[in-house]
Structure formats: C-alpha cells, structure tokens
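Let us practice reading a record.
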Amino acid sequence: MGLFDFFKKKAEPEIQEEKEALDKGLEKTKEGFLSKIGRAVVGKSKVDEDVLDELEEILLTSDVGVPTTLKIIQRIEERVERDKYVNTEELDQVLREEIAALLEENSSSDVEHAFAEPKQKPYVIMVVGVNGVGKTTTIGKLASQFHQNGLKVVLGAADTFRAAAVDQLKLWGERVGIPVIDHGMNTDPASVAFDAVKQAVDMNADVVIIDTAGRLHTKVNLMTELSKIKKVIQKFIPEAPHEVLLVLDGSTGQNAFIQAQEFTKATEVTALAITKLDGTAKGGVVIGISDQFKIPVKYIGVGEKVSDLQLFNKKTYVESLFKK
C-alpha cells in the first residue's frame, strides 16, 4: 500500500462506526449545549436580545472562548437583521451554519489523508504538548493505526525527563510490534531524535514519530530543546520535521487555549490533536481553538480505543454536535 493511502476509502460500516464513536464521544457536550439552547428559547417566538444573551453564555460555558463566541453572536445578529425575522425553531440551524462556516474559514480543508505529501520518506512527525494531555497515548494510537494499514513506523522516546513517558512508549511499541528508540531517562532528547530518524532512514520506514518533553522549567528551555531536536533531524532530512503536532486536552477547556498559546510561541506548530473529548462537556473548545490559532485540527480523541483517535472532519463534527 502506498504511503499516502493510509486513510484509504473506508467501507460504509467503518464510516458508520466512526460516526457512532463521535456521537458517543460528544454526548456530554451535546447534552449541555442543546439542552441549554432549548431552555433559552422556551416561551420565545423569535430570536431577540435576551435569547442572544443566553446563547452567548451557553457558548462561553461550552468553552468556545470569548473572541469566537462574540464572533458567532455577531454573525447571528447580522442574520436576524438581514432576514428581519428568525424564529427560535430556526436557531439551531442558524447556529449550526455559522459554526460550520467558521470552521471552514479557519483551517485548511478536511484532511483526507494522515499526511501531507513529503518530498521523501520517512515522514517525520514531532509531537509536542504538556504532560497529562494524552500525548504519548496519542502517539501510540497514531502509530498503531499507521501500522495496521501496512506502514513501517519508528518511534523516538525523546521525552527523557519523565520515565513514565519512555516506558509507556516502549509498551506501545511492544504491543504493536514497532521499534522504539530510547536512551532511558535523563538523557539528551536530541540524541534520541537523531537515532530514531537514522533508524527510520536505514530501514526505509514510512513514518517516524518523535515524542518530546512535556514539561521544562521555562519557555526558553522548551524553545532551545525543540530547536535542538529539529536541527539534528535536519541532518538527515533538511525539510523535516514535516509536521509539528500539538496535543491538547479538550477537557481542560480554557487551559487548552493557554497551552496552545505557549507552544505556538515556542515552536512552529502545524497541526493539532485535541484529546479526551469523550469525558467532558467542553467539546466547544475545538471551535474556539480552530478559530483563534488558525492551525488545522487534524485529530480528535473521542474514546479509549485505538480507532477513537479520528481524523477531524468539520462537517461530521458539527452534525454530531447538533444531533438530537
């Protein structure tokens, strides 16, 4: 199978299973979101100022974020003004359309494949994010899906500040049958990255995924460490890393925004993975982060299974969010 056929056209049962997992994963967000909208419009016949005030509060408590919430409210106000009359029964549809439009504007088109076409193999993914967001688990699930689809994968355990991260990655490697390059704890992360990419080149691997430290003492340390890792990778592949994937915990709401701010200052982030959406009512964070950072949300985590790390599809996400 070719490298960029990873997400080959799926059979209908697979697509249906993914949609069901997404629906289940967003249950808590939907329950809060839709029930609150329902209560906001009880006894109202049209979308007036009171309804818009309620809607603003609903979006904020779903962790859409202040700037994005204000943008959505302004768009709905313009719709009401333009159409002269929008009744409360239409509010769901109007809101759905405006959220879909916002997601469409604020990132590239839906990712149909796991990769952007690189000039050569291996495709190097550097994964960043603070401890506890599900970074190492995301790497394991991603590697497992790649491997299941016939790709040769190498993992680099360069989060050497945390023994648990190295051990966890090695466990994933053993479980899936993927080589994991590690030098143990408190070793040089850049050296691990160097050996991981070298191994990937030597074995003609398709993908190499490098885990990086989630906690360093200062932002300067973080920037220095990530820069060092990039430099050693580029000794083998000048245009690498092809992707810098920032993993964020969707259940932390506004903290995810702060983490995104810190990491986008420290390094050039090219894609986002938002995890743990199944355990939270804060699934609106996907909308706000996509809008505010203009970085494509590439993956979302909606459950424990390997397949519950899904490629993010804007249309399917919005459909699921408003499914009653």
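A brief commentary: Residues 24-105 form a domain with the Four Helix Bundle (Hemerythrin (Met), subunit A) fold (CATH 1.20.120.140).
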